[in-house]
Write a structure and sequence with these properties.
By secondary structure, the chain is of the alpha/beta class. It has helices spanning about 5-15, 20-35, 50-60, 70-80, 115-125, 140-145, 170-175; strands at about 40-45, 60-65, 85-90, 100-110, 130-140, 150-155, 155-160, 180-190, 200-205. Strand 4 (about 100-110), helix 5 and strand 5 (about 130-140) form a beta-alpha-beta unit. The longest helix is centred in the N-terminal third of the chain and has 14 residues, at about 20-35. The structure holds S-adenosylmethionine (SAM).
Length: about 210
């Protein structure tokens, strides 16, 4: 199912479904970004605001962008802070929502829905201050190799969202092309069991 329709449909249950990927990425983001300083943040694919509520505790200004009006409506319902500007936009087009340079650009569980990483990394690099950070938290490609995809239940059956697999080297090489240096890579496992396939991959990059 196309991404926008899927998330508009998923929005009413996104926060309440059992979803290990959503929850483990939330823990990963908090753990990784707690030691990274930022005042301003561009949050890409904010969804229902799972991470926005944590990011506004650290940042003084956030632009939170999403394709799905219904996901954004949930985020707006929950988060009433003057520090956040929610914007509906498709990040595969030109980033007109970028109205300043940011200390941090964050991506949580969004790049699996994007085919062309090059456009996104180039726009993100242009949105960062020199020395600014880019955080990526994704469903681990190893999980994707086993067939795992974003999906949810409806009364008509299981809906699977359009997904693309990006290998770890795709992230690293696209970062290099856009003058983003690799700072950190981490993997998160269900129940911390490192004998299983990791569920979440995080990558931190820094603009040269
Ligand atoms: C799995 S949800 C993640 C939401 C939130 N970041 C989280 O971790 O819970 C993926 C989000 O990416 C958004 N998204 C997907 N493709 C997008 C695009 N082309 N432009 C903007 N947002 C997009 C979807 O609408 C959806 O809200």
């Amino acid at each position: 199912m196309n991404t926008q329709d899927a998330y508009n449909k998923w929005a009413s249950q996104y926060d309440t479904n059992i979803n290990k990927t959503r929850d483990l990425e939330a823990a990963a983001l908090r753990s990784i970004l707690s030691s990274i300083p930022f005042e301003s943040c561009l949050e890409i694919g904010c969804g229902t605001g799972k991470n926005t509520s944590w990011l506004i505790e650290k940042a003084s200004q956030i632009t939170s962008v999403d394709l799905s009006e219904e996901m954004l409506a949930k985020a707006r319902e929950k988060i009433k802070s003057g520090k956040v500007q929610f914007v509906q936009a498709d990040i595969t087009t030109t980033w007109k929502f970028r109205n300043q340079l940011y200390d941090l650009v964050s991506f949580s569980l969004v790049l699996e829905h994007i085919e062309n990483l090059e456009h996104i990394f180039s726009e993100a690099a242009a949105a960062l201050k020199p020395g600014g950070y880019m955080y990526i938290g994704e469903l681990h490609p190893f999980k994707q190799y086993t067939g795992s995809k974003a999906r949810f239940e409806t009364t008509e059956g299981i809906e699977v969202v359009d997904c693309f697999t990006h290998h770890i080297s795709d992230f690293v090489q696209t970062a290099k092309k856009n003058k983003l240096s690799l700072v950190d890579v981490n993997e998160y496992f269900d129940d911390d069991n490192r004998n299983e396939i990791p569920r979440i991959l995080t990558i931190v990059l820094r603009k040269d």
